[in-house]
Design brief:
Length: 398
Amino acid sequence: MSMVRGWTVAGVALAAGVAIGAGSAALEATLRPWRVGDFLAIDTPRDAPAPQVEAAETTHHFGSVGSGEKGQHAFVIRNRGTAPLVLTRGATSCTCTVSDLGPSTDSGDETAGEKTVAPGGETTVSIQWTGKGVGGPFRQQATVLTNDPRRPEIAFVIEGTVVPTWKAVPDLITLPKLSTKSDALVTTTIFTFGDEPPQVESLAAIDDRTKNFFTVSSMPLSAAEIAQEPEATGGFTVSVAVKPGLPIGPLRQTVRMVFRIPEEITAEIPLEGSVAGDISFAGQKWDAARQRIILGQVSSRAGLSTTLFITARGPNRESVKPVIEEVVPESLVVEVGAAEPIGTGAVVRIPLTVVIPPGSPTANHLGSEQAPSGRIVLATGLPDSPIVSLPVSVVIGP
């Protein structure tokens, strides 16, 4: 008897579950119509006025475009329905693809970002793009929203290949380890992909702080050298001569080139290195590889205190008497301690205390383009390197 009653309960529960599931599915189907591609499966009365959007072409292959060059293609949209078709700009896949509603062929109303196309009329959607990157396949998408209930949006796709207009090998100039008394010569090769051989108009190091220590020159590539880069049509070498006397510490410079191929191109190549001298730095917050003080993220409520050490050697070590010239951010408190000889006295060590007092204002000097590094600038007392600038990476938060 218990077994029969159990089967009965299970049967009733199963039937109820099926009924509820079927009801939920039917409700969801009513509220969320089926979609096939851009089309919605919606039944509309045959005699009810309705727009009907038609776009015969939704994908355009533009072939090749140079990096930095702009392209454009117009897609045609027609209204095959019996009611006005309203078009609105939709989303684009990235900023290098922009949709724009062009003029219609009828007397349709046009407002910013929206257009109405009368029954039987047509309009165009202009897609603009800019070739970006160093080269390779390119595919972007822009959408246009419609009031056609069966096709509420149209996705227009552009695709092709971006070819570079120029290429640097290497794209970062790395200097050998320098001293304040040494010089150096480094080079990079610029390949171009224009219709004409490059005509170099100007070359210069542009960072004002150290530009006087650099001399930049160029030399055209031979045909054999150009052939080493596939599809290159020309090129030149860039030579950077470094003069003695650079300040101690990390070195960052930018070489700017202006040349024609035949359109004018402005290109920049970063240059990095470091300069050593009779003084060096150490400490828990000192990053020797990057040659900078890394304080990281600091709470303004708690503050921070750390000690670095300046090590001086050589015949002028006794002359090293650091003086604080500049501090960024201004809330940093930097104190120079007394010099102490180490071992036989061939090396002198000087403590440098860096403090962020509690209650300091918030600041962002992480070391990015948007948040440049802070710095501690020292007058050293050395004749060969009188000024040292130490980059500081720090974010002071609440």
